[in-house]
Amino acid sequence: MTKDMTTGNPLRLIWQFSVPLVFGNLFQQLYNLVDTIIVGRYLGLLSLTAVGATNSIMFLIIGFCAGTCTGIGVPVAQRFGAKDYSEMRKYVMNAVYLCLIIAAGLTVATCLLCDDILTWMSTPTDIFDQSYSYLFIIFLGLPFTILYNATASIIRALGDSKTPFYFLVLSTVLNIVLDLTFIIFFQMGVAGAAIATIAAQAVSGILCLIFMIKQYDILKCDREERTFRAGYIGTLVKMGVPMGLQFSITAIGSIILQNAVNTLGTVYVSAYTSALKVQQLAMCPFDAFATAGSTFGGQNLGARQFKRIRQGVLCSVGIALIYSAGIGLVLIFAGSKIALLFVSAAETEVLGYVQQLLTVSGIFFWLLAILNCTRMAIQGLGYSAAAMLAGCSELVARGLMALVFIPLTGYHAVCYTSPLAWAFAVCVVVPMFLIVVRRLERKYMV
Predict the structure, then answer these.
(1) How much is the pLDDT for 72?
(2) What is the distance between the alpha carbons of residues 391 and 405, in angstroms, rounded to a whole number?
(3) How many of the other CB atoms lie within 10 Å of CB of 348?
(4) What is the spatial distance between Cα 311 and Cα 412, in angstroms, rounded to a whole number?
(5) Cα distances (Å, whole numbers) of residue 445 to 67, 301, 382, 438, 439
(6) CA 247 to CA 252: how far, in whole Å?
(7) Chain centroid to CA 36
(8) What is the model's pLDDT at position 98?
(9) Residue 145 to residue 31: CA distance in whole angstroms
(10) What is the pLDDT of residue 301?
């Protein structure tokens, strides 16, 4: 079930690897989207806004977890590409130890600080209690989030993008059933939606772990390979934590933006929340194309095939650009209609503001296509810390808009914040990719 990506047509390999990831990312988004639809329809706009107000902080914490877990797959992919399987297994085992440490620390810290976080974000008082209930339960489930993302990252590093997808589909269906059960039958409110989400996440993570242990003989370790090794932990931290921080830096910008939106009033918070749900759903395939290119680059770095690394990036960017054109038209002409999934048609003012934001996003999605693919390529080559500069650029742009232009021009500036952030980051990340590849070529004397 492993897949060697160091031989064969790059475009075909990346496309075949991407397809399960696209659907997997879409199903993962359905976790929160289903919550939103059911909460919006059965609990009302206020509860929907309460859940939506937690988006940025969830992105900060869960993004760090997902990014770190993606990063730990980089040395695994490189060792797999080099066919150094003993070293690969040592990295896998030490990744397990690192994830246990991160899971314990983050869960305790976020649960203790949940109230303070929502206060700092200027969460409106009429939704504060519901936001707290939802967010606290999500934080309790962080170990399951890390479990799924870590096992899926390792499996994908071996070239298998289908297995995590299958389990994710199963858990998404479970999430829908549990959402309906907890919210409608047991009337547990937004807490029921949160419990359904983490329960479904736990199922997907546990199934991935069992499958990985039973089906991948290449991962079966002897006693010596299971040893805790500080050097390997250090490498994994060097690869994973900067990638996690990359997500977190982007999320900090989103939190600053969310804070600015919260000051505009409940109508704008509702519009921004709804538009963000649609936008995140539309953005899922970008992450898939970028992850495929990153895995391709990691394996080919292990095999020292630098020409294929460049080809892989061009292929992933090309696929992403074609997608950005299509989905951009959908958002421009039908964005608010998609938002009807979880916003009543009677909320005409909210839907108007939703369409305003999605129109701007649809026009500039091509920037995100370039940004994600080149940034993930850099990370796949082992330069996670360098890729953080792109996140810093996004943070500067979002901070500038939130602190200066949104107070001056209101919601109009909110709509242009993300495209400006993407443009800032592209100006950093594209030259950086070229520098990284040349540096690696000189290092290995190609």
Answers:
(1) 86
(2) 20
(3) 10
(4) 39
(5) 31, 13, 18, 10, 10
(6) 9
(7) 18
(8) 93
(9) 12
(10) 81
Is-contact 166 145, C-beta < 8 A? no
Rounded distance between C-alpha atoms, residue 446 and residue 442, angstroms: 6
* Segment 136-168, tens digit of pLDDT: 999 999 999 999 999 988 988 888 888 888 888
- Is the separation of the CB atoms in 146 and 69 below 8 Å? yes
Q: Please provide the DSSP assignment of 155-171 as one string.
A: HHHTT--HHHHHHHHHH
From residue 214, alpha-carbon distances to 149, 151, 158, 218, 220 in Å are: 18, 13, 15, 11, 9
Quote the CA–CA distance of 226 and 91 in Å, as a whole number: 9
Tokens representing 346 are 């009677």
Q: State how far the Cα of 380 lies from the Cα of 281, in Å rounded to an integer.
A: 24
Over residues 381-402, the pLDDT tens digits come to 877 777 778 888 888 888 899 8
User: How many CB atoms are located within 10 Å of the residue 139 CB?
Assistant: 26
- Quick one: pLDDT at residue 105? 94
Contact 79, 219 (CB under 8 A): no
> Smallest Cα–Cα separation from 66: which of 382, 287, 221?
287
pLDDT band at 340 (very low <50, low <70, confident <90, very high): confident
What is the 3-state secondary structure of 85-134? HHHHHHHHHHHHHHHHHHHHHHHHHHHHHHHHHHHHCCCCCCCHHHHHHH
Tell me the DSSP string of 324-368.
HHHHHHHHHHHHHHHHTTTS-TT-HHHHHHHHHHHHHHHHHHHHH
Q: Which pLDDT score, from 0 to 100, does residue 67 have?
A: 83
Longest dimension (CA), the chain: 65
d(CA 379, CA 384): 4
Relative orientation angle of helices 128-140 and 55-81, to the nearest 10 degrees: 20
Token output for 435: 């520098």
Tokens of 324: 């950005």
**Token pair listed for 444:** 């290995």
pLDDT of 31 > 70? The answer is no
Average pLDDT along the chain: 86
- Tokens read off for 238: 């060097």
Cα of 352 vs its chain's centroid, Å:
27
pLDDT in tens, 65-118: 888 888 888 888 888 888 888 888 999 999 999 999 999 999 999 999 999 988
Give the other-Cβ count within 10 Å of 278's Cβ. Answer: 27
Task: Write the CB contacts of 222 (distance below 8 Å, at least 6 apart in sequence).
Answer: none
Output the CA torsion 76→1→315→19 (10° steps).
Answer: -120
